[in-house]
Amino acid sequence: MKRLLVLAVALLALGLLLAGCGGEEKKAEQVLKIGTMSPLTGPYAADGNDIRQGAEIAVEVVNEAGGIPGFSKIEIVSEDTACDPKQAVAAANKLINEKVPAVVGAYCSSSTIPASETLAEENIFMLTPASTNPKVTERGLKYMFRTCGRDDHQAPAAVKFMKDVEGVKTIFIVDDKTTYSQGLAEGVAAAAEAVGIQVLEHDHVNQGDKDYSAVLTKVKAANPDLFYISLQNSATGALMVIQAKRMGIDAILMGQDAVYHPKLIEIAKGDSEGMFCTFGAIDKDAPKYKEFQSKYKAKTGNEPGAYSAYAFDSATAYLTAVKAAGTTEPAKVREELLKLDFTGASKQINYQENGDSGSNYTVYKIQDGKFVPYWNSLTGEKL
Amino acid sequence: MDFFLQQLINGITLGGVYALIALGYTMVYGIIQLINFAHGEFFAAGGYMGVILISYLSSQGVNPYACLAISLVLSMGYCALLAMAVEQLAYKPLRQASRLAALLSALGMSIFLQNGLMLTQGVYDRPYPTEITSGGFEIGAVSISYMQIFIVALTAFLLVGLNILVFKTRIGRAMRATAQDKVMSALVGINSNRIIALTFAVGAGLAAAAGIMVGLYYGSVNYTMGFVPGIKAFAAAVLGGIGNITGALVGGLIIGMVEIFAAGYISGEYKDVFAFIILIGVLYFKPTGIMGENVDDTRV
């Protein structure tokens, strides 16, 4: 009896296998998988989920428009980096096993850099929507692209604003020691000294801190004209803003692109009023953005986050290039990617030879609970 | 001088929070020699329960202070129940097993609770209503917020309450007896299982109070918020002499102060280093902690 059972199971298994083979023979069931990697858990999960959702919408749009010839359907495979270099490399390896030809991500520059080295070995594309550290595109990786701006453009833009618009003479800088935040803060310090703004102090806090009272007491004692906050995420930025206001610090507050997020205002509420942030200019009245925004809201119930539009554009750019090349073969897709010049949801997408797509930093001011474009760093005009 | 005073006030506030969390570690260790690594998660759960209740009650038009008081009591109760459930599930079956097994179970519980919070409450920070907490006054150049006073006062109040519970009541006597010798105390008719569950409940209630205070003080809660303060409070408990209630208070205050002064006078990036250097130093030179570990009278 037992033997019979084993035989039956074996036959059944074999049958399934054969059925599988039969399916294969019919051919053309080819799925195009696009990877995303971003921090889906941990303190940076807010931005990480924005990125994943942005890419998902790009795929949705392309699928609805009939997909790409030669592929039955396009799918997103998401991996979590938790903004940790080791986990990012593990995520890259998982995506390699999934046979993705391209990855949208990661968020933290400290994750993007090691993960991109792993992906580069397999000639897999990496298009980052959020990593702004200059090193990302300066290592000569053939398939590394960047849709957002660069810190070495952001820092001078911020400093120019401080000097030309606000007439700032002294600043106090705080960062949280990540590759991104510290690199940017050092850039700001150097640029400030170069134009004669005095850097009273450049201090650091740890990631995951909640209590900033000690460092804020220092800021208050130093009494700078402007307090520059370079933290890796908007929630800690909000905590710092709340505590600074309670401490009675009346310096101008300024943050950067990682602090720029609707969550900052949601958490810090009135305390964030009047704060400045640098972020790439995204024209929120442009039809492309509106279209993206309504799709995003319908799918997630939220407003697009800071990097959603960049993630959307990164994925769209790659899919467009694949469609034009008619294949996922890396060299051919790269050629098409470099030829692209289209209006994305975030900006005009036009990749350069090194993979960058140009920076267009704008200073935003928080007014009535909203980020309002305030000053254009390219033209030096008030908006 | 103003700078020093201001940092002193910051340090006492932070130290008070650590002390409240450390009490839970110390009490549980005192009674069953278990380092409950899931304790930081009760702190986070308390913070979340607080924001949920405060938001709900204030949307019903309840007076902000009544809101705060009700939420505080309810969250403490909620975390007490949660802790008893965790004890029943993860620790009680392992009471006769090796200490390592219980420790691993605690670590697992911590990860489980943290992810549970993430899945039910989302990955985003949850803002606290700030109307109650803004405001303060200045003495010279030193600013003190009402929230800081509230934290210190509540810490003191809860500590006095705990002392009365442990040293003046029958339950407290049973707790101390169980801590000294579980078998003998059971022989004289103390239900040690109930006492252990109660100890967990009290410790978690204190952590929940700390969670709400932190949420109010800093403006938001996050599902990862329990981890770092949990470790710091554990350090505080060891520093003061684990198993010792007064020790937890002293240890908490020291860790809070060291952190703030290291950040204030050296740099923010060094504050954790100094807190743990002190801990290592104490363990090296006086392994029983500052207040001693085995003073039976003060041990729970």
TrEMBL record, chain A:
SUPFAM superfamilies: Periplasmic binding protein-like I. InterPro entries: Leu-bd, Leu_Ile_Val-bd, Peripla_BP_I. Pfam families: Peripla_BP_6. The lineage of its organism: Bacteria, Pseudomonadati, Thermodesulfobacteriota, Desulfovibrionia, Desulfovibrionales. It comes from the Bacteria. GO terms for biological process: amino acid transport. Gene3D superfamilies: 3.40.50.2300. It comes from Pseudodesulfovibrio hydrargyri. The keyword Metal-binding does not apply. This is Leucine-, isoleucine-, valine-, threonine-, and alanine-binding protein.
UniProtKB/TrEMBL annotation, chain B:
InterPro entries: ABC_transp_permease (IPR001851), BCAA_transport_permease (IPR052157). Belongs to the binding-protein-dependent transport system permease family. LivHM subfamily. One of its GO terms (cellular component) is plasma membrane. It is a multi-pass membrane protein. This is High-affinity branched-chain amino acid transport system permease protein LivH. One of its GO terms (biological process) is D-alanine transmembrane transport. The chain crosses the membrane at residues 12-35, 42-59, 65-86, 98-124, 144-166, 195-218, 233-261, 273-292. The keyword Cell membrane applies. Its main location: membrane. CDD domains: TM_PBP1_LivH_like (cd06582). It is found in: Cell membrane. Pfam families: BPD_transp_2. Keywords: Amino-acid transport, Cell inner membrane, Cell membrane, Membrane, Transmembrane, Transmembrane helix, Transport. The lineage of its organism: Bacteria, Pseudomonadati, Thermodesulfobacteriota, Desulfovibrionia, Desulfovibrionales. GO terms for molecular function: L-isoleucine transmembrane transporter activity; L-leucine transmembrane transporter activity; L-phenylalanine transmembrane transporter activity; L-valine transmembrane transporter activity.
